[in-house]
Amino acid sequence: MKIKIRIAKPEDAGKIVAINKIGWLTTYVNQENGITKADILSKNFNRQKAWRESIQNHKRESHFWIAECDGKIIGYISAKKDKEYNELGIYILPKFQSMGIGGRLIKKAFKWLGEEKKIRISVVGYNAKAINFYSKHGFIKIKNENHKLPSGKNLPTIMMIK
Ligand SMILES: CC(C)(COP(=O)(O)OP(=O)(O)OC[C@H]1O[C@@H](n2cnc3c(N)ncnc32)[C@H](O)[C@@H]1OP(=O)(O)O)[C@@H](O)C(=O)NCCC(=O)NCCS
């Protein structure tokens, strides 16, 4: 299996949106914490146009990379330069997780973001895989927070900083 990392193109927006939605459904639906599929689907995933525009205008403020396996997009990372902190978003399709692809993507983002500002991410408290992943890449837990879904439920989150 050959995994290729490349810079995203505007026409990848549809696939990025689909991976983001699959990622939310497979990672955050959680009986123990009372988060149902309907809670996750209350969020607006239909943001293809916005993604397309950000990819088109990337370079200075934001940048996106794609992971491909045999020509199919299987994951992405977004990196954003912001006022106080820089930010990241990363999703890999379940079948391709824990194979080192996230590690390859995050290194691209670290290099592009540089070290001028700290990077802040918000990770769901019961998402142990991602918490381990970020810890391994130097992030530390700062504080507990909540992410309110449009359904009214709260996703317990942790702010991590590197
Ligand atoms: C979190 C995520 C981006 C990590 O990418 P990945 O390609 O799976 O991670 P890697 O293979 O590079 O693994 C790196 C580290 O992550 C952690 N990790 C990976 N899989 C894990 C698992 N099944 N259980 C616990 N920790 C795990 C480990 O610390 C691992 O280090 P190791 O390889 O030395 O054991 C990916 O799993 C993913 O997309 N998850 C679903 C969406 C998500 O949670 N996104 C982050 C939102 S904040």
UniProtKB/TrEMBL annotation:
Gene Ontology terms, MF aspect: acyltransferase activity, transferring groups other than amino-acyl groups
InterPro entries noted in UniProt: Acyl_CoA_acyltransferase (IPR016181), GNAT_dom (IPR000182), MshD_Acetyltransferase (IPR050276)
Occurrences of domain N-acetyltransferase (ranges): 3-162
Pfam families: Acetyltransf_1
SUPFAM superfamilies noted in UniProt: Acyl-CoA N-acyltransferases (Nat)
PANTHER family: L-AMINO ACID N-ACETYLTRANSFERASE
Protein name from the UniProt record: N-acetyltransferase domain-containing protein
